[in-house]
Amino acid sequence: MIIVSEDEDDSDSNPFNFLGQPVYDSVLNINHDYRYLRMGYYVSAHAETFGVGVTPNCTEIMDAYRNPLLIEKAKRNGLRTSDYRLVTSLKSEIDAPVVMFAVNPFTNNSMKVVESGSKIPGMIKRMSMGARFPVSLHPLTGEVVEIIQMFGESTREETSGFAKKFYEVFNIPICKLVVQIDDSGVVLNHCEPAKKKEVKWDIVRDKVHEIIFERTIKNK
User: Fold this and answer.
1) In this predicted structure, what is the pLDDT of residue 220?
2) What is the pTM of this model?
3) Which of 21, 81, 153, 170 is deepest in the core (most CB within 10 A)?
């Protein structure tokens, strides 16, 4: 297994070097940003070009980073989610408060919490880039928090079980999750890249060592 990572302590190759060479072994792609046409995505696409297994693969990346795909896949796999609505322009009244996310390949960290219904139309217009891309609206029913998920570990203790299940379903090593916490637990709203400084890289290294050890034992 080839470990491709920005964190040089445990990587076999950094992303730039990896993209310039053929690939013959499976790949563990460790990156804080897997968005479409970003370095993390290119690493997985490069591995798939050579027909080797890669974690995460391009389909898993798209499933996690496109809000409607994220929510539908989460629902099918038993993760608690909120209802959502896709709009490009306001054609009927929408109840506030809502949490809004841009659904396009260009915008990152797009979350907006809108508590006044009168502000929703203008926000939709801006976030949809003039009705060219949809906006995903989720009802605001709990406390909105952001957590960093790292191989199933969470930066918030009360979301640890949820983060573990998310990783089992989506297979994304590192990401930021936008969730709501209410009396019934954790509700998934969105997945987006983590900032490099937000990642606890000591946890990532420990998890990588566990994976290497498990594969070594399995292959003996």
Assistant:
1) 66
2) 0.92
3) 170
List Cβ<8 Å contacts ≥24 apart for 19-23: 19/43, 19/46, 22/50, 23/47, 23/49, 23/50, 23/52
Q: How many helices (H) and strands (E) does the chain have?
A: 7, 11
Measured CA to CA, the distance from residue 111 to residue 136 in angstroms comes to 10
DSSP state, residue 172: -
Quick check: helix, strand or coil at residue 116? coil
Average pLDDT for runs of 10 along the chain of length 220: 82 91 95 92 97 97 94 97 88 82 79 88 88 92 96 96 97 97 95 94 92 78
Nearest CA among 79, 81, 82 for reference residue 164: 79
CA–CA dist 205, 156 (Å, integer): 19
Residue 142, burial from CB neighbour count under 10 angstroms (0-12, 13-18, 19+): middle
8 Å CB contact between 96 and 152: no
